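Design job #97: recover the sequence.
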């Protein structure tokens, strides 16, 4: 399910696909999310007809339970969704950066271990905790 813009004009809709044309007052991005929601998918799965291969028809699609929102509500919902998706992308990037940093730390610790720079548990040598703090401070 996806909103279609003028960019896709004259594209072909293949077998097994359906085009739903919205009135101009409906935000295509919002309603594509609603139509792609689990609630709508469940409704369509339960309403599909056929014994061998389940299919949809216009009658079933027309009865999809779709909430109605004012234009202002639609714009606010889309804005909120865009904001949440941007925060999700930011969190994902931060997570990926943290995982990359952890990977570098692991490699650094292993390299020091193979060079014999981590020391032992002898009281006369620096503690492993102090060495780990140094490694973390360097990265």
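Job complete. Output follows.
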């Amino acid at each position: 399910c996806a909103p279609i813009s003028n960019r896709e004009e004259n594209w072909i809709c293949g077998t097994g696909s359906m085009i739903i044309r919205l009135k101009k007052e409906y935000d295509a991005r919002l309603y594509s999310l609603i139509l792609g929601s689990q609630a709508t998918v469940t409704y369509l799965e339960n309403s599909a007809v056929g014994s061998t291969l389940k299919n949809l028809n216009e009658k079933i699609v027309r009865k999809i339970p779709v909430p109605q929102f004012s234009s202002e509500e639609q714009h606010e919902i889309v804005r909120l969704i865009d904001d949440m998706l941007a925060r999700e992308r930011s969190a994902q990037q931060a997570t990926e950066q943290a995982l990359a940093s952890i990977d570098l730390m692991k490699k650094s610790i292993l390299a020091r271990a193979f060079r014999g720079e981590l020391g032992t548990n002898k009281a006369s040598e620096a503690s492993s905790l102090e060495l780990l703090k140094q490694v973390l401070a360097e990265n």
